[in-house]
Amino acid sequence: MTTAQLNPTPDPVRQHVEMLHRLADGVDGLLVASAFNANLHSDKGTITHHHVGDVDGMVAAIDAHRDTPGANVYCGLQVMRRSLARGQRGGEKDIVAVLGLVADLDADTGKAAGEYPLAPNYVIETSPGNLQPFWLFDTPLTPDVAKEIARGLKMATGSDHGTADIAHVWRVPGTLNWPNAKKLARGRSPEPVPVTVTAPWDGTVTSAADLHRAVGAYAVSAAEPVMLGDLPEVDGVEVSTEAAALLGANGVDDRSAHAARVVEKLAFDGHPAEVAAALFLSATGDWLERYPTEERATADFQRLWGRFGAPHVESRANAEAFAARVVARVSGTAPAPANDNRNEKKDGPTFPGILTSAEFVRGFTPPDYLIDGIIQSGFLYSITGQTGSGKTAVALLVASCLALGEPLADQEVKQGRILYFAGENPDDVRMRWIGLCHELAIDPADIDAHFVEGVFSISEFAERIERDVAALGGCAAIFVDTTAAYFPGMDENSNVEMGHYARLLRSLTRIPCRPAVIAASHPVKNAAADNLLPRGGGAFLNEVDGNLSLAKKGDRTSELHWQGKFRGPDFKPITFDLPEIKVPTLVDSRGREIPTVRAVVVEESEIAARAQASSREDSDVLLAVRNNGNRSLRELAECLGWNNTNGEPDKRKVQRVTERLKRSGHVVYELSAWKLTKKGDAAATEAATQRHKAESSKRMVEGLVAKSRSRRTNRNRKGTEAA
User: Fold this and answer.
1) What is the pLDDT of residues 330-376, one digit of tens each?
2) Residue 220 phi/psi, 5° resolution?
3) Cα–Cα dist 115/161, whole Å
4) Average pLDDT in the 76-101 region?
5) What is the mean pLDDT of residues 284-313?
6) Could you count the other beta carbons within 10 Å of the beta carbon of residue 43?
7) pLDDT beyond 70 at 707
8) From CA 83, how far away is CA 3, in angstroms rounded?
9) Strand, coil or helix: what is 440?
10) How many CB atoms lie within 10 A of CB 556?
């Protein structure tokens, strides 16, 4: 066997295709391969569609053209919708997700004058001197977000127009670049050149947020600067706490980036451009002093407003227009034209008028509960839980209860149609729904539940959603799984972006049937069970009507309550078990049953029994640690007589209890030994006292019973002797 056989040269086509499928993993859609022949005057191309994961099929489709004279092969960095017509390459409107961006640096046309905003993850050379650096995203982006970054990337790199086109396709390394007539006219040799990799992909990816920030400075120059009128006095102008902090900040590292944040926050808060400019120029923080003149600061504000402020103004106007259309449809009347409004100052606030007590209380609308005491029609809720807390399983159970009109933990439920956006992992949602329907003994065809599979832009398709919901006859609730999957911005931890996103979700509650919107959300980073707030801080939380928290309470058990905010009376926490289930209708391609997870409500009597058992287990471990804390988990299990189903010491049970005691501050683990804290020592003493009392009472009762039996026996004996 030769060395070449031992170490075969990697196939660049396969490596490129594997990279695309790895980046697209979890996205529901199609990857497209295209081949066009440079020797033909008119060629519609050979187009093949490939589901995410079909690496072999896509490689075979490309390989089919390797030896065809004139065949140029391309693949895009986008995932297209599954319903794309056969033989169609698709355009921007067909894109489901964008996996990365490419700068088209054609040295032979002079389109390579810029610089890299960040180091690319991968670079190919399509012909001598013509490079295509790839920035591969850490998470797939929606088309509208990717398009904005692409425009900035084109400006930053000085590259060809293809850079800004998110539907553009790119050559595949390992194939040949055949020149077309236009390139031959520029003096290109008629001989094809191989497309090669100059910087292989090492598996790294680029943060979309970082790339957005890096190209933002270039995009500013492309935005239309705002033209300012006379600036007003800022005395008496109210600013938010966050804006005040930004205006007064000292010692910032990057003046330009900080100035952009100031402008964006002022625009987000609703200040007109002139008011925002006056506030900007009157900032007390030392960042403003870094501008050499007030004229330079003003010019920078004008550019920044065009880039960061104007989109907020436009977004607010679009949202108001959408809300007005919804209101008009609900009321059956068109909005009054502007010249029919009251003769108020055009840009000033309107006074609502003084109401009598009777008029004021007549405005009360009784709550319309879908789930009694918890979920109201027309309200926006987040369900925030740690990974593994069962957000999807609980959301599907709640959805089934609504669709069937079945109680949830003894809470009355109003039956209604549900719509479920399965965005984060549609296949997992599908499996859980199959399992849940089997466990509930219902046919999925007999339940009034409807699903949207995969990620899409909620803002772009808002009217389509409203139209399709109306065609269904309305719906009682819309479930969004998850907020991260449908997030249209760059940074989930950005208060500004998440505030916009929450308002977008709230717009779904305003369609005529007034559905409740329930969005499964990820918590802030490293969130504990008592800090289950959705990402985006106060900006997101302020926009929802309630944040339902789902906290893990042990192995496969979670508790639903609320944290941070809840409009309505308090309700009892609901405990769910999350058992793994297997059902005969859920099998793989070889007929083997696939496990999935469902949520089951735990009855109050069972909760009480578990609490008592947990208390007993806690006391057992506290007393064992007080007796000897130098034992391992296995030794503690042996000491306590805790065995698993295999008859072996149950280390996992001991670990679960010790972790619970650590969280509650009763024990610590230091220098390879368990130790009781002051709180733990007091609890152990109390446990020992209670057990002593219990044992004493038990012995007393046993003694009394024994005496009673002895007396009875003696009486019987005497009676027998007397007879």
Assistant:
1) 445 444 443 333 343 444 567 878 989 988 888 888 889 999 999 99
2) -60, -45
3) 16
4) 91
5) 85
6) 14
7) yes
8) 47
9) coil
10) 16
Q: What is the DSSP letter of 459?
A: T
Q: Burial level of 374, CB count in 10 A (0-12/13-18/19+)?
A: buried
Q: Which amino acid would we find at residue 214? A: A
**Distances from the Cα of 538 to the Cαs of 60, 242, 562, in angstroms?**
51, 11, 15
Question: Has residue 380 got a pLDDT over 90?
Answer: yes
pLDDT in tens, 141-152: 888 888 888 888
For 122, 496, 689, 701, the CA distances from 697, given in Å and listed in that order, are: 76, 64, 12, 6
- Output the pLDDT for position 241: 85
**Euclidean distance between CA atoms 153 and 151, whole angstroms:** 5
pTM reported for the whole predicted model: 0.51
Distance, CA of 415 to CA of 400 (rounded, Å): 10
Distance CA 351, CA 653 (A): 64
In sequence order, what DSSP letters do the residues of 346-374 get, joined into one string?
A: TTSPPP-----HHHHHHT-----EEETTT
Please check whether residue 68 is in contact with residue 426, taking contact to mean a CB–CB distance below 8 angstroms.
no
* Distance of alpha carbon 270 from alpha carbon 252, whole angstroms: 25
- C-beta of residue 258 within 8 angstroms of C-beta of residue 213: no
**Residue 87: which pLDDT band, with cuts at 50, 70 and 90?**
confident
Q: What angle do CA 502, 505, 511 make, to 5 degrees?
A: 140
The residue type of 366 is P
| Cα of 306 vs its chain's centroid, Å | 29
Residue 249, token pair as written in the block? 């900040």
